[in-house]
């Protein structure tokens, strides 16, 4: 028995030494379960740069593995060697995978080490420029008068815009015709051209078109009004009467289950340092994102938040009967 305790103590000491040196000369791969060039990819590349210094100048590369509601990239990380060199940056999709994807080869709540939430990205409800309504009250009346005729665009099943659209229909008790696209860019192009009526998407994607007056903006999906000059006059959907309506596209960082506690602690500390980096904050603000500062930057807070998000989205997705595979 004494030998067992001695062995355990030696193993713990060795792991601690390895953690102090982590990652050493090893390259860290940050898997992004979406295509290159999108909002999550941009967050990942900014974060990778901000993590380099607190990780001793480590080399961090971004690996884009899109598909199946973000589950393909997430599965790659779940299967990876749990040594801290393979990480996952995923957005709200992490909370929709359990319901949106059939036959998921991993469990979101138990097959990852949670390292912390990175940011929140607000969303805006926008319309084609020729929309007859000019404010949210008028839009509500227009929706009531055009039931069964409204086309609601999205960037594909499981995308941020798809999820926001599902919640909007549920909150307003209105069925709209979903029009899925292969990405946000073609959806916004058709919205500007009047081929679809409405779209709910991230400020990252909608702000340029709002500023150029190529679309009409009606509301934001946050609990409080935004303070940016461009969007500060838009009401929240909660203000407009949709009780408890809140959608932000958050991003979180994960490692494979079984990654040594000393390494996950070092990764969490590096993440918290990155979230205070002035350059990272500046870049995120440029994307319309708000860097996380609350209890969700801790692993336990992150895990509780994702569990609550799973509970929020599961009934909405089940009611819609949609799948990403």
Mind explaining what this structure looks like?
- The chain has 325 residues and is an alpha/beta fold.
- It folds into two domains: 192 residues, D-Maltodextrin-Binding Protein, domain 2 (3-Layer(aba) Sandwich); 98 residues, D-Maltodextrin-Binding Protein, domain 2, CATH 3.40.190.
- It is built from eleven helices and eleven strands.
- The protein has a six-stranded mixed sheet, with helices on both faces.
- Helix 2 links the parallel strand 1 and strand 2.
- About 3% of the residues have low confidence.
Q: Can you give keywords for this protein?
A:
325 residues, alpha/beta, D-Maltodextrin-Binding Protein, domain 2, 3-stranded antiparallel β-sheet, 42% helix, globular
CATH topology-level fold name of the largest domain? D-Maltodextrin-Binding Protein, domain 2
Termini gap: 51 Å
Low-confidence stretches: 5-15
Order of helices and strands: HEHEHEHEEHEHEHEHEEHHEH
C-alpha Rg (nearest Å): 21 Å
Biggest sheet: strand arrangement: 2-1-3-10-4-11
Mean of the pLDDT scores?
Answer: 91
Any idea how many domains?
2
SS elements, strand count: 11
CATH architecture of the largest domain: 3-Layer(aba) Sandwich
The biggest sheet, with number of strands, parallel, antiparallel or mixed sense and barrel status, is:
6 strands, mixed
Helical stretch tally? 11
Q: According to CATH, what is the class of the largest domain?
A: Alpha Beta
- The level of helicity is 40-55%
Strand content: 15-25%
Structural class: alpha/beta
Question: What would CATH call the homologous superfamily of the largest domain?
Answer: Bordetella uptake gene, domain 1
Shape call = globular
């Amino acid at each position: 028995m004494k030998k067992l305790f001695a062995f355990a103590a030696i193993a713990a000491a060795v792991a601690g030494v390895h953690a102090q040196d982590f990652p050493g000369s090893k390259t860290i791969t940050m898997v992004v379960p979406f295509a290159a060039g999108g909002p999550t990819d941009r967050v990942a590349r900014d974060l990778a740069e901000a993590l380099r210094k607190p990780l001793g100048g480590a080399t961090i590369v971004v690996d884009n593995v899109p598909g199946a509601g973000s589950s393909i990239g997430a599965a790659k990380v779940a299967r990876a060697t749990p040594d801290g060199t393979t990480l996952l940056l995923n957005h709200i999709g992490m909370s929709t995978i359990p319901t949106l994807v059939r036959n998921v080869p991993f469990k979101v709540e138990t097959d990852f080490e949670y390292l912390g939430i990175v940011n929140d990205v607000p969303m805006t409800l926008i319309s084609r420029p020729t929309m007859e309504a000019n404010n949210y009250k008028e839009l509500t009346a227009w929706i009531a008068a055009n039931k069964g005729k409204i086309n609601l665009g999205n960037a594909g099943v499981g995308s941020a815009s798809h999820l926001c659209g599902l919640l909007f229909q549920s909150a307003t008790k209105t069925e709209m015709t979903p029009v899925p696209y292969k990405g946000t860019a073609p959806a916004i192009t058709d919205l500007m051209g009047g081929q679809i009526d409405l779209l709910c998407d991230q400020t990252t994607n909608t702000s340029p078109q709002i500023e150029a007056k190529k679309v009409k903006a009606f509301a934001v999906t946050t609990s409080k009004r935004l303070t940016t000059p461009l969007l500060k006059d838009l009401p929240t959907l909660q203000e407009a009467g949709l009780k408890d309506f809140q959608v932000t596209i958050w991003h979180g960082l994960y490692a494979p289950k079984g990654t040594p506690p000393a390494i996950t602690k070092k990764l969490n500390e590096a993440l918290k340092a990155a979230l205070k980096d002035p350059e990272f904050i500046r870049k995120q603000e440029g994307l319309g994102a708000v860097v996380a500062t609350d209890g969700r930057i801790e692993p336990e807070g992150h895990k509780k938040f994702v569990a609550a998000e799973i509970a929020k989205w599961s009934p909405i997705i089940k009611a819609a009967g949609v799948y990403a595979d």
